[in-house]
Design a protein that fits this description.
The structure holds two protein chains of two kinds.
Chain A (H helix, E strand, L loop, with lengths): L8 H13 L7 E2 H9 L5 H11 L6 E2 L1 H15 L19
Antiparallel strand pairs in A: 1-2
Helix pairs in contact in A: 1-4, 3-4
Chain B lengths: L13
Classes of the chains: A mainly alpha, B little secondary structure.
Chain lengths: 98, 13
């Protein structure tokens, strides 16, 4: 449904905690700050590049809290051997950005 | 800005 977001509330609060621990500036994390976190997943860099492209919805080179949750969600799915989609499914677009 | 297009905002490229 329109109101459904694939990032579950318990996931979102976990990802929000990680987001805050990275000390966002004006509510945004730069690529420099996010990169090592995603690299920790040990996923191939080309996969992480796709994750970034899908997550940085406004293409400003930074992730806000919702975009970061999308990135982390995709990383966790990829670790479970689910392929990263080529286009962000509507269920993964944060409700604030629809 | 990002003259190379959106891909240059990607820290993994």
């Amino acid at each position: 449904t329109d109101s459904h977001w694939a990032v579950r509330p318990e996931e979102k609060s976990k990802f929000d905690g990680i987001f805050d621990s990275l000390v966002p500036v004006n509510g945004l994390l730069s690529g420099e700050k996010v990169k090592p976190v995603l690299m920790n997943s040990k996923l191939p860099v080309d996969v992480l590049g796709k994750v970034w492209d899908l997550s940085d919805i406004d293409k400003d080179g930074h992730l806000d809290k919702d975009e970061f949750a999308v990135a982390m969600h995709l990383v966790y799915r990829a670790l479970e051997k689910e392929p990263v989609p080529s286009v962000l499914p509507s269920s993964l677009i944060p409700p604030s950005k629809r | 800005q990002y003259p190379g297009g959106s891909s240059s905002t990607n820290p993994f490229l």
